[in-house]
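Entry:
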Amino acid sequence: MNIMNEPEENKQPLSSKLAFNLSRIQEETGNSWDIKTREIEIFAESGVIFKGAIVYVEGLVNLHDMLHSLLSSDSSLRVPDVAHPEELLAHLRKSIIAEGAIASVDTFESLYEALFTGCSMMLLEGCAYALSVGTKDQKARPIEEPNVQSVVRGPREGFTEVISWNIAMVRRKIKSRHLRVEPYKIGKATQTDIALLYMDNIVTDGILDKLRERMSAIDVDGILESNYIEEYIQDKQPTPFPTVFNTERPDVVTAGMLEGRVAILVDGTPFALLVPALFTQFFQSSEDYYQRADFATLIRLLRFFSFFLALLTPSVYIAVSTFHQEMLPTTLLYNLASQREATPFPTFVEALLMEITFEILREASVRMPKTVGQSISIVGTLVIGQSAVEAGLVSAAMVIVVSITAISNFVLPAFNMGIAARIVRFLLMLLAATFGLYGIFIGMILIVLHLCSLTSIGFPYMGSLAPFKLKDQKDTFMRAPIPRMITRPKSFLLKNLVRQKKR
């Protein structure tokens, strides 16, 4: 487990004096209103009275469970004959306290760590350690269908913000002793729980060693979302293309682990990470494996085609209408020329204005309240597009080009790959306006070379395509029938390549 260093004074042991411990807790937490202390008295049958206190953070603990198992209404408790506080805590731990996990803590560092994760701390006069009782109150969003990665056929459950629930959802799907859960705590202030999940009989040691090294090197105040981890563990290569896959679906995480990938779950976010990631992985949907192979292949090819439409449609229109009019049929050329006659801007400027306008509308629809966001995006696009054509600012053909581009961008199942297409699209538009189709060809060659140079946790980003592996083509552009997918991807150098017996 990786725990960021705390100040040295917090590593001091607890005192046997109850008043000193309580005073220090209040002092070091700034007398925070939500940190509550409840003093108690415990009566032994011999007549000895033990004084103690329960410390907890209001809002993080389930008070009913704690008080029901520990205290009566008058804040007192009767126990059999015990002589020392240590014996009393041992008896409470064994016979009285029935709720939650129980652990002993003997330093202020471990006390604060347990206290701020929802545990109740029980301290006694004359005892130099405390009992940590797991009374965490799990207030969280229930398990629901993912909003981003929805499917027509398949499981309807998605990850939540509670890491223990997310791990349990993966455990429910993989009932194997080879599933490993490796815990981390990262963030000097947030102490965020993070878990690496993998199949130790499949994953290669090289992936685990690199991940452990990069995770251990993280030294930051807080981890609030899985993207914090993503930016620390990804290979240091400047690129708009995502090299770490994220998902909020347990079935996607499970399938990735069975192919030799490592999942990273972060407490407080429903988005899990999967590494290594391949370029073709961002065009795959979990629904591909819940439909017939022929239909899944058709849909997957449609996604790749849509990606190229989103990438190239504006730049090809700019290049053809500006430099290569001879490529157009005569009737179409006359129609475009008549539309362009009334527009004051060059084609590139026209396309740039429309693309930027649509990006603004898209971002506005995301940030606005859900009740009006969708209607604003649709009405705004229609009204602005129609008004721009009537005002002579843009041609009708340009509105069609931008609309096809935007719709094609939404076909991609991975949102971050769509963002990469939007960034690269503007660069290709500039090349098309400068060099025509030759500029587009140069740009595409540079993009392919760039993709082939990328790695994800040290493994080639283009995976089975570069270097080319024929047997791995069963699950790239096409999806072969599941009985024929005998082996796992060879790109990851796995311990066990055999997925199933050959039929």
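The first strand starts at residue 35 and ends at 44.
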